[in-house]
Write the structure tokens for this entry.
Amino acid sequence: MAPLLDICHALDPVAFARERLDFQPDPNQALVLASRSKQVILNCTRQWGKSTLTAAQAVFTAWHEPESLILVMSPTERQSGELVRKAAAFLSRLGVKRRGDGGNKISLLLPNRSRIVGLPGNEAGDRGFSGVRLLLVDEASRVDEDLYLAMLPVLAVSGGDIWLISTPFGRRGFFYRAWIEGGPGWQRVKVPATECPRIRPENLARGPHRHGRPLVPTGVSLRIRRQR
Ligand SMILES: Nc1ncnc2c1ncn2[C@@H]1O[C@H](COP(=O)(O)OP(=O)(O)OP(=O)(O)O)[C@@H](O)[C@H]1O
Ligand SMILES: [Mg+2]
């Protein structure tokens, strides 16, 4: 790879995703990748591509920042493993063979010593990680709040980024509160099922209905905005 192209890809996550990871983000996904925000909330429909997009972001960061640590937290080990598996697939497109970090069951070690580590849901808070560059909380609305709070100090010293990724699960919990009252530091992205280009309207129509309407949020445009 020509050094100039490397530099371009380091500066442009969307081009990196398209040209190096062979992931063609849709326009809304590209906006998220390009945003470079330190705190992101993806409040999006099932199957929008949240985990895939997040895996691409994890690989972008790990690839361009040597020795960086990216943590993936989720309600269960299986879900963390699923996101890390997507990251491994992207890494293979970069020619990186799958290799663990030797200390964590769900982990990827890159040639530049960066690591992507998936945490088992039940003990995420007490693993003694430090210097975390990026904390990804997948299915955040279902992650145990105490574990989430126990994990936050890992960002306090490193000043790392955080992404909360989920479909909503009622008006409760840290995901909901960050969305509603988290303040202007969060970049908020909302995509209902009706606006996901990969969900066909006829398939939506097949799903559960209430009062003649599909049980999905409708009429809400993608918003990438900062709360006032
Ligand atoms: N830009 C894209 N182009 C093509 N396929 C995509 C794109 N984004 C996501 N997908 C596909 O959509 C499907 C769902 O992706 P993914 O599992 O990342 O979504 P999700 O929002 O995390 O889903 P869930 O809510 O079930 O966790 C996968 O098959 C994935 O490969
Ligand atoms: Mg997912």
Q: What stands out?
A: The mean pLDDT is 88. The chain has one domain: 26-225. The beta strands are 39-44, 69-73, 106-109, 115-118, 132-138, 161-166, 187-191, 209-210, 213-214, 223-226. The first strand starts at residue 39 and ends at 44.
